[in-house]
Request: fold
Amino acid sequence: MQMSTTDTIPGETREVRESMLTWSCRQASIQEAQDDLAKWMKSGGWDACVGVRFETHPNTEYADSFLGRGDLRWTVYGTAVKYS
Reply:
């Protein structure tokens, strides 16, 4: 995966007009995390998301962590961009 902090994204001829770090967290699946991020991007008029990364993390209450209970949740991170 490639992430750009310049005014252009490699392979694109359009310039980046605006960018920001974005994420969706505590989702039950990769698909839910991806869908939630896509919904947010569409509502904000973003053109692309680059440098996407998925991570899992435990979803436990404080007491559950001592008992080994809990499930996994998904977080997706990326950089949202708008082209000019």
Summary: Residues 63 and 83 are 47 Å apart (CA to CA). The radius of gyration is 16 Å. The first helix runs from residue 30 to 44. The helical segments are 30-44, 62-67.
